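Regression test case RT-17, inverse folding.

Input:
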């Protein structure tokens, strides 16, 4: 009997990447094989994102296209997973009659059971449950197409959901209440990854800083902060790099900052989303910190780790954002001088509090503000990148080709190395490189002279 094939298209964040990998593994265990061609696959899974309207539109247009494919191949099964599935649920079933399975964000572990049930049920939609617990057994897979170019590094989900309810954000609605995994399960998964040859682990959660604060993560119920988890995982023999994302500044503890001066393998990069430089806007966003507190955390991080590279997320054109508010955002950028940032125009999301605010900023003005922010960020990033010139940095090799190789510094900078005298090396190896060029998005270098 031939094996059914599956194709997964992943949109959005790292959380979704990891979820896709878990779905791929559970399917492989049931005899499915991965296909690179969506149109000829027996099962197509769209693992979706709804963080901004644009992300959701992409999903909808792909689903529209699949309607025709399904007409030609009625045996094809179509599954929508991820945040759009959670948010749209039953509505999606109505609008898209060619979708067989709407898989909520907490239901990925039941994927194969639900697929089996489709024969009887016809179509199925699942959703969030208040009693959800993250299953103990999380499979590990060596390769999946999404990951093929980096078989030496993996994401490890340590918690799901979010309790913060920032007024613009759909995540608490699509991923449910915050829940942390048990420490022993996390450590077992990290150990399994290291045993499988993984060199770099990124711990994932919407707000890792509040790990273990909403449910017990130890056998005896004793408190176990995120900083302790970092210290424990950093002890694993063979692990070369440790990262985490993402953090809310309001919960960033002093002990977590101290980890950067005490844990050797913790990469010197911190992604600390600020979202706005204006206290008035931060308040409307329900971020629960001020610009002053944010700057204080940045100073703290830099005092423990002077070369830490900082990146952030920024939203421009939040409802009610005045010219002065936006100047505060520009001023924060000048003050912190982020190494890089992800910046977005505010986008109304269904079910969020800010979508009902009546003082929306015009699209044109949002565009102009975004362009101004991004232009200045690009200049600052370039200046940072040029300051690496003549420094010797350690990279983890990601890709090797005939022309040379590319890798990444602990600070999360991509480095291209064109050198005819490269030693024998593999992806995942660490290599010392002397930087001779800093461009807008990456660095270039050579092997240091002996
Ligand atoms: N509009 C624009 N950007 C948003 N983000 C989250 N929700 C919205 C929204 N409604 C951004 C935030 C967050 C990042 C993942 O996406 O900056 O940190
Ligand atoms: Fe969304 Fe705020 Fe939670 Fe981040 S902390 S996922 S922005 S609600």
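Golden output:
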């Amino acid at each position: 009997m031939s094996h059914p094939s599956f194709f997964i298209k992943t949109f959005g964040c790292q959380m979704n990447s990891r979820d896709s990998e878990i779905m791929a593994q559970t399917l492989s265990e049931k005899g499915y094989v991965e296909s690179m061609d969506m149109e000829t696959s027996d099962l197509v899974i769209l693992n979706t994102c709804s963080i901004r309207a644009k992300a959701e539109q992409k999903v909808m247009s792909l689903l529209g296209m699949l309607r025709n494919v399904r007409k030609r191949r009625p045996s094809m099964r179509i599954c929508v997973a991820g945040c759009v599935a959670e948010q749209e649920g039953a509505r999606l079933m109505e609008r898209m009659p060619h979708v067989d399975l709407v898989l909520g964000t907490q239901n990925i572990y039941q994927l194969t059971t639900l697929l089996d049930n489709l024969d009887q049920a016809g179509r199925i939609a699942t959703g969030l449950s208040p009693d959800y617990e993250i299953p103990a057994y999380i499979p590990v897979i060596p390769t999946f197409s999404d990951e093929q170019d980096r078989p030496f590094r993996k994401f490890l989900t340590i918690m799901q959901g979010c309790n913060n309810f920032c007024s613009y954000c759909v995540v608490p609605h699509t991923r449910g209440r915050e829940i942390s995994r048990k420490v022993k399960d996390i450590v077992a998964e990290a150990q399994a990854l290291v045993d499988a040859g993984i060199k770099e682990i990124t711990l994932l959660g919407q707000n890792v800083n509040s790990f273990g604060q909403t449910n017990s993560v130890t056998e005896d119920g004793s408190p176990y902060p995120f900083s302790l988890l970092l210290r424990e995982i950093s002890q694993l023999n063979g692990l070369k790099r440790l990262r985490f994302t993402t953090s809310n500044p309001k919960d960033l503890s002093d002990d977590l900052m101290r980890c950067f001066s005490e844990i050797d393998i913790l990469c010197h990069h911190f992604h600390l989303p600020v979202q706005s430089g204006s206290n008035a806007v931060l308040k409307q966003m329900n971020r629960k910190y001020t610009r002053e507190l944010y700057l204080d955390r940045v100073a703290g991080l830099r005092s423990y780790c002077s070369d830490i590279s900082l990146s952030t997320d920024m939203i421009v054109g939040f409802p009610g954002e005045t010219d002065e508010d936006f100047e505060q955002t520009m001023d924060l950028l000048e003050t912190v001088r982020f190494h890089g940032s992800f910046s977005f125009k505010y986008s109304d999301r269904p079910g969020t509090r800010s979508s009902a605010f009546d003082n929306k900023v015009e699209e044109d003005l949002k565009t102009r503000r975004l362009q101004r922010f991004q232009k200045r960020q690009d200049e600052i990033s370039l200046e940072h990148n040029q300051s690496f010139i003549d420094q010797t940095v350690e990279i983890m090799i990601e890709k090797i080709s005939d022309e040379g190789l590319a890798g990444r510094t602990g600070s999360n900078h991509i480095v291209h190395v064109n050198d005819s005298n490269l030693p024998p090396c593999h992806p995942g190896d660490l290599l010392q490189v002397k930087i001779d060029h800093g461009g807008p998005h990456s660095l270039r270098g050579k092997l240091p002279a002996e």
